[in-house]
What does this fold into?
Amino acid sequence: MSVIVVASMKGGVGKTSVTANLAVAMAAELGAGRVSTIDLDPQNALRLHLGIEALEGQSICKQALRRRSWQSAMVDSPFGVACIPYGLVSESEREAFEDLLVEEPDWLERQLAQTGLGDDDLVLIDMPPGPSVYLNQGFACADLILIVLLADAASYSTIVAMETWIDQIAVQRPGVESVYLLNQTDESVRLNRDIGEVLQQRLGKRLLPVGIHRDEAVCEALAFLQPVLFYDPRCQATHDFQRLAAYLIGQADR
Ligand SMILES: Nc1ncnc2c1ncn2[C@@H]1O[C@H](COP(=O)(O)OP(=O)(O)O)[C@@H](O)[C@H]1O
Ligand SMILES: [Mg+2]
It folds into this structure.
């Protein structure tokens, strides 16, 4: 099993959109049933991108507090990707879950080991922005950390902090890879182009050669509770997610 953790220092950069759409694009390449997603963000938004209704019990947070396995919380979406929603929970449930994650730093790793997923299966995990107990859990078992950035000054200014995280993880887990993904690129905006170039110089090969264009279809797809690949199979963002999926699968096979 390969675990991809989708992270960023800032909110609103597209982590959840990327987790859902990349998972759907990867499942289209690898086959339905091979890709699972986990929502470790209390915003509980990943399920929306995958057309999953909020049902009691289908919650990673609640299952953890009940000490039950994930199996019954895992929902098959109509888009070839399974999902465990964070769940609709109370503040006290969220706090209790976060306490559990502090006490058991290897909780996620142990749960993943019990899923019965095969060696070739993929798991993508959506994270809240910035440092958190959730991210620490993800860092402890990630094979690949996918950091989402916008080509703007605010994202650029987070790179030093991101690199400090990555350096710390590399000490504990030297094998873990980290790459940066530019989202919402728009070549018609000069600042966007310029910051894209600066990021390229700064990050070199760790900036993925495939970015995701800014495309209204991504927002519209969410309004229809669909991944963009199904909402508009011909749009630019769909094309980008397909290229990104093929690129990452190609890299993993090497
Ligand atoms: N490539 C894109 N093109 C246009 N809008 C996008 C794109 N990626 C994300 N968005 C929009 O940006 C907003 C924030 O995205 P989201 O995935 O929720 O970010 P995060 O999970 O990092 O907070 C949403 O309204 C989403 O529809
Ligand atoms: Mg999000």
In short: The pocket of magnesium ion (ligand 2) is lined by residues 15-16, 41, 43, 45 (CB under 6 Å). The chain has a mean pLDDT of 94. The domain at 2-253 is CATH 3.40.50.300 (Rossmann fold). The radius of gyration is 17 Å.
